[in-house]
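// run 5 | inverse folding | seed 20
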């Protein structure tokens, strides 16, 4: 509808991307001088970062606009990835690499008197996530854009991301992470403002086209959702997708002028803060359901705004409703967005006047649900009275969904009343609660787990009845993956370059199976030497970081043994630190002669504990206390050091991951759904010590049993072992573990009361995570690690062979599986502008 001459003028004036060093420098200086109002005289590293980011951003935005126009014009099916967490980390380096501008930028800033590394280091992490689940969402966005899929992410724009961890006197303290001071990567869309209602009542309204009395939800409190858009560049493609994050504010302006004019200034500000609280803070829990009302508000706020946006976009195409599932796929990242199912059904029946059955058929064909855990304490349950109060109309719809579902179960399995009780969305009790995973299954056409073992386990345990009801085909597996762009090319450029020199360039970054060519070089002495030198350089870099931040010197030639992830009893950092104590006790007993034969080791830990998770915090305290003792012990400290890296996050992971010799993935079998850092470490040439759990099993299958150190009991034995702990008589604790407990209880690592919770979990607490059952296997396997490490050539062979066989674990492979088997979407290449 825009007249042709006007189009011509706009086309002529249209912004174009800079190319080459000089143009880049010009853009940086222009941004420093005009956007930032600074000059050569006060341009520090931080201002240089801002200028560089803004210059790179300009090119990104041009690609982004082009992509969005292209996708709108094509009007193909899109996928919407709904996740309460996107753990993006830093953007600048990734944006430069993905758009091919890194070399230009390096030379450019150098010519302006800066080092690109220092500039990259200025950026604050975007830490809108807790751990694996949030980072997976970020890796998936990278793959979706790289593979040219039309895709949007939807999330919340938290003002405070995951807290910053400080270690004070050996204990974790939490400090707020205000990260929005300068964020060039987001674009506020004040014109995209959506009203979201809470509370209110449901009243009878007029009759609808089908003759039924309509239900009208009204009189509630209204909060506005404002869109903030973040460009997501693909690697080696112009495709730049959108991540839309919602921020909350009071509806109808900054504050209530009525209240203000009547003298209630404070009241008007309070209302404003109340609205803004919704998107204020990320809940810092990983694998645990806390059931707080504000969290439910966050979930509905985000889901309602996203669904409104998606439906509005669909309506612009003037297609009939029956085409909705042919245009829209929505993936639920865990049960956090399950209300989206209810909200879409509400939009269809209450607002768009579709009949229930037609609406429900569209809804179920639209959604897919990914489960990320079998841990019972992590399965979301919302109290019925809470939902009744906050979302009264949604509760009615949930009851109807449940009723129709149970009626269908009754038809299929007549009179099995216990089955009806077991699969009902409403769990009886005081109060009644809604089982969100069941609602997610009923409202989706596919349900997937995130690794083979995990997907088998959910079918055999928590969702078994639903497999009987819906059949096998509804349940599937998509093993997680990681983006090789960030986790190899960006984090470990030297290794990426060496690999590229052998496998014929950087194509492996878009087809990770090309790594297999590396196996040809297993006997190439110079290649092996270069390989091990790169590993050593990464260890030196981490050692320097440790020295700079903790003042502790670690030997880069020692075996670096790393466990970095959220602190959780099921991940068993306690078993690791008990193993360290056991090692220390042995070293203390040895003669100087014996000590000479030992392999020096540096045990490195990192990870946050949920602020209310007392046991996890005790584990951190034990690790830091063991460090205080061991690192000072002149007799042994050339053979053993213990480091706790404060405030583990994505940008630190990029330094830590390339530096491991061994990393630990030692969860109780059957508890870690997948794990993704296991993949990152192996892709960087580190070996693994781990249990037969999550993706460790598939990693073993790909790289070969000879290249991984497996330990411990199998998932199929866990139930029996737990039973044994609870009801078996005279279970004697493993002697090695007894020795460790004795040392702790003797106060060798500070007052033993500090650890009483940890100790009693092992004994009177029935050792739910089976540390005592796996401990001797763990110690024996660590001995095998030491032996293997003495043979550096053999170690290099394992390392290279493993990397060569890691192609399967690219997030690109995972995304292609989702696209083909769940979303039914096609890639669409953005043509370079003529
Ligand atoms: N995961 Br549930 C989280 O990081 N947070 C959660 O709240 C839940 C799961 C993780 C799993 O623990 C991990 O095994 C998996 O690799 C990851 O999600 C991505 O699927």
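// decoded
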């Amino acid at each position: 509808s825009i007249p042709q001459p006007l189009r011509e003028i706009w086309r002529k004036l249209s912004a174009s991307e800079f190319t080459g060093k000089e143009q880049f420098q010009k853009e940086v200086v222009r941004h420093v001088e005009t956007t930032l109002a600074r000059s050569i005289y006060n341009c520090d590293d931080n201002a240089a970062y801002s200028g560089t980011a803004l210059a790179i951003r300009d090119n990104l935005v041009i690609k982004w606009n082009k992509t969005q126009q292209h996708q709108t014009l094509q009007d193909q099916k899109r996928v919407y990835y709904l996740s309460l967490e996107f753990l993006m980390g830093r953007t600048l380096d990734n944006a430069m690499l993905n758009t091919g501008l890194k070399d230009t930028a390096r030379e450019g800033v150098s010519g302006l008197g800066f080092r690109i590394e220092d500039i990259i280091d200025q950026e604050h992490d975007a830490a809108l996530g807790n751990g694996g689940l949030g980072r997976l969402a970020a890796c998936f966005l990278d793959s979706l854009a790289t593979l040219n899929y039309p895709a949007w992410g939807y999330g919340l724009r938290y003002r405070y991301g995951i807290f910053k961890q400080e270690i004070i006197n050996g204990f974790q303290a939490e400090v707020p992470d205000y990260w929005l001071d300068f964020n060039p990567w987001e674009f506020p869309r004040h014109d995209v403002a959506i009203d979201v209602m809470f509370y209110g009542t449901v009243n009878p309204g007029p009759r609808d086209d089908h003759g039924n009395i309509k239900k009208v939800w009204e009189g509630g409190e209204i909060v506005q959702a404002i869109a903030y858009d973040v460009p997501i560049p693909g690697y080696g493609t112009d495709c730049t997708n959108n991540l839309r994050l919602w921020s909350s504010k009071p509806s109808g302006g900054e504050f209530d002028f009525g209240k203000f004019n009547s003298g209630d200034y404070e009241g008007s500000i309070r209302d404003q803060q109340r609205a803004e609280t919704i998107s204020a803070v990320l809940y810092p829990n990983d694998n645990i359901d806390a059931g707080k009302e504000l969290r439910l508000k966050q979930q509905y706020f985000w889901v309602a705004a996203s669904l409104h946006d998606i439906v509005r976009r669909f309506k612009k195409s003037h297609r009939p409703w029956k085409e909705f599932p042919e245009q829209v796929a929505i993936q639920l990242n865990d049960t956090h967005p399950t209300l989206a199912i209810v909200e879409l059904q509400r939009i269809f029946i209450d607002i768009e006047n579709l009949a229930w059955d037609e609406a429900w058929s569209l809804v179920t064909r639209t959604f897919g649900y990914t489960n990320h855990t079998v841990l019972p304490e992590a399965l979301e349950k919302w109290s019925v009275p809470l939902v009744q109060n906050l979302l009264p109309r949604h509760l009615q719809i949930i009851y109807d969904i449940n009723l129709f579902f149970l009626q269908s179960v009754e038809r299929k399995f007549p009179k099995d009343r216990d089955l009806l009780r077991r699969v009902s969305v409403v769990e009886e009790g005081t109060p009644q609660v809604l089982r969100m995973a069941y609602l997610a299954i009923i409202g989706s056409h596919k349900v997937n787990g995130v690794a083979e073992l995990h997907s088998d386990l959910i079918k055999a345990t928590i969702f078994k009845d639903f497999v009987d009801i819906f059949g096998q085909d509804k349940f599937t597996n998509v093993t997680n993956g990681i983006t090789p762009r960030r986790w190899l090319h960006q984090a470990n450029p030297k290794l990426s370059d060496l690999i590229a020199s052998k496998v014929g360039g950087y194509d492996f970054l878009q087809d990770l199976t090309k790594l297999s060519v590396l196996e040809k070089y297993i006997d190439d002495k110079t290649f092996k030497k270069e390989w091990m030198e790169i590993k050593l350089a990464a260890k030196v870099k981490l050692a320097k970081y440790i020295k700079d931040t903790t003042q502790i010197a670690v030997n880069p030639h020692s075996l670096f043994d790393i466990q970095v992830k959220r602190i959780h009893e099921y991940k068993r950092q306690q078993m690791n630190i008990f193993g360290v104590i056991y090692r220390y006790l042995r070293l203390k007993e040895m003669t100087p002669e014996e000590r000479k034969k030992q392999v020096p080791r540096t045990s490195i830990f990192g990870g946050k504990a949920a602020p209310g998770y007392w046991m996890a915090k005790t584990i951190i305290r034990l690790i830091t206390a063991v460090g205080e003792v061991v690192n000072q012990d002149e007799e042994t400290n050339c053979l053993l050091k213990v480091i706790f890296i404060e405030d583990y996050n994505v940008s630190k992971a990029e330094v830590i991951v390339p530096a491991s010799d061994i990393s630990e993935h030692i969860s109780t079998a059957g508890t870690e759904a997948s794990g993704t850092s296991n993949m990152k470490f192996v892709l960087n040439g580190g070996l693994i010590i781990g249990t037969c759990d999550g993706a460790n099993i598939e990693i073993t299958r790909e790289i070969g049993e000879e290249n991984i150190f497996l330990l411990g009991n199998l998932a199929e034995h866990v139930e029996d072992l737990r039973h044994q702990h609870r009801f078996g008589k005279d279970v004697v604790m493993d002697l090695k573990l007894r020795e460790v407990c004795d040392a702790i209880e003797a106060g060798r690592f500070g007052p033993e009361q500090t650890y009483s919770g940890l100790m009693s979990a092992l004994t009177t607490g029935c050792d739910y995570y089976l540390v005592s059952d796996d401990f001797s296997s763990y110690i024996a396997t660590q001995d095998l690690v030491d032996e293997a490490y003495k043979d550096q050539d053999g170690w290099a062979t394992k390392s290279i062979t493993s990397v060569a066989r890691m192609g399967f674990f690219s997030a690109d492979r995972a995304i292609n599986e989702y696209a083909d088997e769940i979303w039914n979407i096609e890639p669409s290449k953005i043509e370079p502008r003529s």
